[in-house]
Amino acid sequence: MATRHHQILIVGGGAAGITVAARLRKVEHDLPLDIAIIDPAESHYYQPAFTLVGGGAYTLEETRRNEADLIPEDVTWIKDAVSTFSPDTNAVTLADGTTITYKCLVVCPGLQVNWSAVKGLKEYIGRYGVCSNYSPNTVEYTFELLKSLKPGAKALFTQPPMPIKCPGAPQKAAYLAADYLSKSGIRSHCEVRFLTAAPAIFGVPFYAKELMKVVARHDIILNTSHNLVEIDARKRKAIFAITAGDQQGQTVTLDYDMLHVTPPQSAPDFIKNSPLANATGFVDVHANSLQHVKYKNVFSLGDAAGTANSKTAAAVRKQAPVVVRNVLHLLKGGAIEETYDGYAACPLTTGYGKVLMAEFIYGGKPTPTLPLDPRKDGHINWWVKTSFLPRLYWDYMLKGREKFPAHNTGYVDPGA
Predict the structure, then answer these.
(1) Cα 107 to Cα 250: distance, rounded to the nearest angstrom
(2) Residues with catalytic function
(3) Which CATH architecture has domain 114-264?
(4) Where are the alpha helices (DSSP H) in 184-247?
(5) Contact indicator for 114, 263 with CB cutoff of 8 Å
(6) Beta partners for residue 125, in sequence order
C-alpha cells in the first residue's frame, strides 16, 4: 500500500484534535507546518450537552456539527481509522492499509465505549426501558422514557468503575430525572436510585460533601460499590455486583421501569494493543508535559492520555496549549514545558436551572474560577453550562482562539 508523510500527525478529530490543530494554525511561529488529522467520523458532537438532551433541556441537533466544517483551514483530513502504531519508525497504519509517517505525533482519539461489557446492554440499549446519555444514538430515548414514567415507577441510574467520560455525568442524569418527576407532580410516588461502582458519590471530597446534600434534597437512594453486570431487559431487571463491604462478591437484582446505563469505557483497542500504552492501556505520557515517556516526538491529551485528571472537555482546554507549545518546542529544539496541573471541571447539573461547578487539579484540590461559593449550585452556573460553555467550545476553543472576550459576557475565561 501507499506511504504518505505529514510533519504533524494528529490521531482523533474530536475536541482535543481539532483544538490542537487550530491552535497550531493560530499561534505565532516561524515554522511551515504540514498538519493532518485522522478521524473517520462525519459528525462532531458537543458531548457535555448530552445530559441536557437526556433531560429534555437541549436538542440533539444543537450538539452536532459537520466534521468537515470544523477541520481548520490548510489541515489535511484523513477520513479513516488507525489500525496500528509503529513509533520506532515514526509511522501509523490505517484501516485501509496505508502507512503514514510523521515527525511529531499527537494521539487524542477519546475513549472507547464498551457496550458489550455488561451482559444484555448491547442487545437491549434503546428499548425495554434501557437508555444511556453516552451516545448520540441513544440519548434521546432517555427523555422519552422519563416522560413516560407513571406513579409507582422505579428509575435506576448506574455508574461503572473509572475511567469514564465526565465522571459527574451519571449522577447528573439522576438529578434531572428526580427534578422532572417533581415538576410533574409524581416524585413522591416514584423511586429514583443511583448505583455507583465507586465508594463515594464523587472523587473529590470537597464536592462530594455538597453532592450528598443534593442526593438528600432529591430523596435519591444512593448505593455505592454497586456495579451493573447484567440486564434482563424483557423482565425489567438489573443485576449488580457488590464490590465492597460485608456483602462483597454477592449480587443484587433490582426491578426497573427506567434504567439509565453509563457503559464501561476504556482506551481504544488500537491504543491498548500498541507500544504507546501504559499498564492500564492509555497513552503513557508525563503528567505535566503530556509528552510520551519513551517516544519523545509523541504527545497525548484528552481522554486517551494516561493522566490522572478527570476526563472532561475542560481538561482538554487546558491541555491543548501545553501540547501545542511542546510540539513547537520539539520541532525547534527547545526545552519541553511541564505546565499542565491536572485542571478539570465538571459542571454538575443538580436540577433544572441549577449547576454546581466543580473545578479541581491533580490531587483533588478545588480551584474555583468564579468569585462564588464553589459548594453551592446556582442559576448563574446553569447559564455558564447551557449558554457560555457551548459558545466557548464552538466559537473559540475549536477555532484555536487565545481568549474568550470578557467584554461580551462579563466573564473572564480562565484558560483558553
Answers:
(1) 40
(2) 166, 346
(3) 3-Layer(bba) Sandwich (3.50)
(4) 205-217
(5) yes
(6) none
Strands 154-159 and 64-66: unpaired
pTM of the full structure: 0.93
Task: List the domain boundaries for the chain.
Answer: 3-111+267-332, 114-264, 344-408
pLDDT of residue 28: 77
26 in Cβ contact with 402 (< 8 Å): yes
Can 3-111+267-332 and 114-264 be said to share one CATH topology? yes
Q: What is the pLDDT of residue 1?
A: 59
Taking the domain 3-111+267-332, which CATH number applies?
3.50.50.60
Could you give the C-alpha distances from 394 to 25, 70, 108, 115, 400, in angstroms and in order?
16, 9, 18, 29, 10
Percent pLDDT > 90 in the chain is 90
Cell of 27: 499561534
From residue 121, give the alpha-carbon distance in Å to each of 104, 115, 124. Answer: 39, 6, 5
Question: Do the beta carbons of residue 406 and residue 412 sit within 8 Å?
Answer: yes
Task: Reply yes or no on whether the pLDDT at 414 is more than 50.
Answer: no
- Is the predicted pLDDT of residue 179 greater than 70, yes or no? yes
The residue assigned the cell 465526565 is 166
